[in-house]
Amino acid sequence: MSKKLIRGGIVVTAADTYRADILIDGEKVVAIGAGALFSKETEGAEEINASGCYVFPGGIDPHTHLDMPFGGTTTADDFETGTRAAAFGGTTSIIDFCLTSKGQSIREALDTWHAKAHGKAVIDYGFHLMIAEANDAVLHQLEDVVEEGVTSLKVFMAYKNVFQADDETLFKTLIRAKELGALIQVHAENGDVIDFLIKEALENEQTDPIYHALTRPPMAEGEATGRAIALTALAGSQLYVVHVSCAEAVQRIAEAREKGLNVYGETCPQYLTLDISELARPGFEGAKYVWSPPLREAWHQEVLWSALKNGILQTIGSDQCSFNFKGQKELGRNDFTKIPNGGPLIEDRFSVVYSEGVHKGRISLNQFVDITSTKAAKLFGMFPQKGTIAVGSDADIVLFNPNVTRTISAKTHHMNVDYNPFEGKEVHGEVVSVLARGEFVIRDKKFVGTKGNGRFIKRHKFGASPTLKEEQPHVL
Ligand code: DUC
Ligand code: ZN
Ligand code: ZN
Ligand code: ZN
Asked: What ligand has the least distance to the C-alpha of 139?
């Protein structure tokens, strides 16, 4: 196995910032310190100059949709293009959502998702499993799912007549998750209310992209978030709210955590940096900014930043769900409900959060690592294999130069999609090189990885990691 010595960089973890060299042997970090201290072990190691760079643990994106059929079409990025773009952006692990439908066997759904990723992914990946119905067969099969390392389950409270599950399904899944040690994720928006508002808008011929946002008000997200929390408390279970976009939802999560409930939240770069005015762009350009939940009024952004800073929200996911403007977003030209929801963010998640967060002084460098990597590893049962730089951890490492700026553009990005929601945005700092399990995937900004090198991550049960309890003031 090959040895590598990363020399002269500043190592940054969720806890510490210090100057040290890192010795990698094969897939693992084997020593950290002044290289001279372990000169015997470094014999024959390839030296990698990291001077001027931060040396971060590889990013973990806990929320992606690759090769996913949705809205009458399929996402533009699959596991090959999506994970390659992720690596360019400093991400070395993703957790993707495995869809299921009513009546479908869970085994079949998981096999489908394994087949999409296997042989294609360039970085490691895990799966969350969507729960469409909670009948006895499904609830029984979950035992094997969790044993297989798929230890998080997703319930949609929105997308009526498509993905939406009712409260009974959510409640039964929460109870089963507690028994099995799984973390329940919710897409928290009140789908029934939104469905009513959409019908009303269409009756009034309100078909432009802006009506996507106006028919999904913040209170519909706050209500569903509060309801999911109440059901979690009743079940004595654990909950992770994906893509929190607004103050109303933050408020519910803050109250729940204050009470000592096991409730966690994620937000996304788009909610931290873009606002509802994007949907009113001239022509049909607003379609590029259609996410669910929708972009909010700008003042919500500072609420989200302070929730990250204060530990009310723990993670940043990209909600990568890319659709081309041409031929895909355009499906909704005459009807906003036909615009496929989602956008391409897997590549820029890390650098947008660094630039807007650390560079602008909203969060610390260590908090940056925590929210883009470490907390996801802990909550989703991958720590300390992933999410930190420590002896024995996977050598998933990013060399990041904070002293340069770069301009985001679809012309230079690596996602398989014809626009970038951050087109023209200047960001501070750039990813220079990325190692995944000890091998370069990106070297000096060039892709040197191998399709199919990414492995399925068999994750631990929720709360099984011995360090998780320290992270949680709230007893499991
Ligand atoms: N929201 C999106 O914008 N895209 C994917 C699914 C979702 O819930
Ligand atoms: Zn069984
Ligand atoms: Zn969602
Ligand atoms: Zn999503």
From this structure: 2
CB 410 within 8 A of CB 85: no
Query: Could you report the predicted ipTM of this complex, rounded to two decimals?
Result: 0.90
Domain 1-476 fold is TIM Barrel (3.20.20)
Which residues, chain by chain, have CB under 5 Å from ion ligand 2? 143-144
Going by the DSSP 8-state scheme, the letter that residue 334 receives in this structure is T
Token readout for 443 is 């070297």
Pocket test for ligand 1, best of 243, 268, 279, 290 (most atoms within 8 A of CB): 243
Global pTM value = 0.97
- pLDDT, tens only, 266-279: 999 999 999 999 99
Q: Quick check: 243 and 293 in contact, CB under 8 A?
A: yes
Q: How far apart are CA 310 and CA 253, in angstroms?
A: 12
Does ligand 1 come within 6 angstroms of the Cβ of 187? yes
pLDDT digits (tens, 9 = 90+) for 336-386: 999 999 999 999 999 999 999 999 999 999 999 999 999 999 999 999 999
- Alpha carbon 344 to its chain centroid, in Å, reads 12
Cα four-point dihedral sign 412, 448, 458, 253 = negative
Residue ranges per structural domain of the chain = 1-476
